Amino acid sequence: MGAFHHVMLCVTDVERSRRAYAWLMPELGYPERVDYGPSSGWFAGASRLWIRPQDPKFAGDTFSKDRVGLCELCFGAPSRAAVDALARALPEHGFRILDAPREYPYLPGYYAVFFADPDGIKLEFAHIPGQTT
Description:
The protein has helices spanning about 15-25, 80-90, and strands at about 5-10, 30-35, 40-45, 45-55, 75, 95-105, 110-115, 120-125. With about 130 residues, it is an alpha/beta fold. It has a single domain, classed as Roll (2,3-Dihydroxybiphenyl 1,2-Dioxygenase, domain 1), CATH 3.10.180.10. Strands 1-4-3-2 form a 4-stranded mixed sheet, with helices on one face. The chain is globular, with a radius of gyration of 15 Å.
């Protein structure tokens, strides 16, 4: 109870996204990958993140965090150092830094990096002292 089983993201270029997420997801603690047709999923225990190709009728549409639907997806970090290390490596793997690692005012000690995947989908990696990932 209370945990997401899976999240599925639609992407414009599944091969490009598969390469990017194949690097990212093990870095975030999702080591196991399964390909199912054109879709790929990464697993960490009972939690999964999937990517799949968008429906061709939506070709040309782009992601906006301000439209109805997903705004961002945040993953828990074990430490500030892990946030910093991921942020340094993101650009060389097809991700764009949106907001550099720093402390944010959401909770005491909240330290995060915000970044976008190859389709502009907003992702976050956050360390919150006292919370487990």
